[in-house]
Amino acid sequence: MRAYYSIIIVFLTACTAKKQPIPATQILKLHAIDNTITQLNDSLIYSCWDTTLKIYDLKVGKVTYSRKLQDLCYAKAVFKKDNIYFPSSNENFVCLSARTGDTIWSLKLNGRCSNFDFVEDSIIVASIKGAGIIGVNTRTGAILYSLNYSFQETHSPDLSPWPLTYDEDNIYISNWQNSALSVYEKITGKLKWQLPNNKEGLFGPGIIYGTKLFIGSNRYYKGGKILVLDTQTGRTDFEQEFKYEEREIPIIDKHIIYFYSYDSKLCSFDFRNNKIDTLADLDEKTELSGNQMFMIADTIVYSDASFHLSAYALKSNKIAQMQKLQYSALLIFKYTNKWYIVN
Questions:
Q1: Are 149 and 129 spatial neighbours (Cβ–Cβ below 8 Å)?
Q2: Which residues contact 144 (CB under 8 A, 6 or more apart)?
Q3: CA 105 to the chain's CA centroid
Q4: Which pLDDT score, from 0 to 100, does residue 286 have?
Q5: Number of neighbours of residue 44 by Cβ within 10 angstroms
Q6: Fewer C-beta neighbours within 10 Å, C or N terminus of the chain?
Q7: Please, what is the average pLDDT of the chain?
Q8: What angle do CA 315, 320, 323 make, to 5 degrees?
Q9: Is 66 within the bounds of a domain?
Q10: Which helix (H) or strand (E) holds 277?
Q11: Taking every annotated instance into account, which residue ranges of this chain make up the domain Pyrrolo-quinoline quinone repeat (predicted)?
């Protein structure tokens, strides 16, 4: 499949109607599946709707690797230490040599791998649709532990891929087995502590800062909550009612988290003083409308409800619409002196 792209010079229109130039913007129409794209140095690795796994070389501006898969891959492939890790079908997860294409190991699954994370160099933690969560040895493909999903035990629906984050010692899984948050040792899979749901709705992924974890819930758009927990004990250090949009993945920059509320507000949380601030009230044209946010330098960028590229400048506290887009942006990043927008 060819990658179609065009270079468009765009200008940032500030709220004062003054125009300020921004870097050249290159649009890549890669036909990628949402949430499967990873930038690694000069390359993008992603899955396509034609059941292929591809690598796009940013230096030469074309696809340099393509591999046909048995099924659509909905998880982000990972390129690590000359190996590529990804689910090759709804039943198999593989590790391939990036140099030769040879299979280093293959793991038979009990369902489709919908997401996986390298929680450390030697361990992958993967969500398996209908089965649960497994820890896998990255060198051998051996299963280290299994956390089994059971509707019969919990009457909690299968919400895979479950939102997951991790630190040096633990993995933190949201909405797992009818608990708001479940914390396991990432090496052994041993349960350490849980936060009960208490009818708080659905929780987004946790964000780690030192020994603190920021997490938010959405009570099906009838309320919500933001919590900051101690990662070692589960103690609540901060709690506030909030209309949190759990589907929007927050951005952390140093000690500040940037996140979104379902009443169309761009907000921040400062770990230094446990303070929530509203940065911008978005209108029906500039709201996120389900699209994800990305950060380039000190600017938060996203494709908005009116199919424009919108930018919020943190220093000037201004939001502006930029280039009109044909499709929603799946990824926005800076490479060399250009902004890249992946459709």
A1: no
A2: 123, 134, 135, 136, 137, 187, 188, 189
A3: 26
A4: 93
A5: 23
A6: N
A7: 91
A8: 125
A9: yes
A10: strand 275-281
A11: 77-146, 180-275
- Enumerate residues 6+ apart whose C-beta is below 8 A from 181: 172, 173, 174, 194, 195, 203, 206, 213, 215, 229, 234
Cis bond upstream, residue 196 (ω within 30): no
Angle ∠(85,136,124) on CA atoms, nearest 5:
55
Domain with 40 in it: what CATH number?
A: 2.40.128.630
The angle subtended at Cα 174 by Cα 170 and Cα 177, nearest 5°, is 100
| 8 Å CB contact between 174 and 203 | yes
Range of the domain at 100: 30-160
Is pLDDT above 60 for 8?
A: no
Domain membership of residue 120 (yes or no) is yes
The phi and psi torsions of 310 (rounded to 5 degrees) equal: -110, 150
pLDDT of residue 150: 93
Asked if 46 contacts 36 with a C-beta cutoff of 8 angstroms, the reply is yes
Q: Domain count of the chain?
A: 1
Amino acid identity for residue 326 in this structure: Q
- Is 63 inside any structural domain? yes
Under the banding of pLDDT at 50, 70 and 90, the label for residue 109 is very high
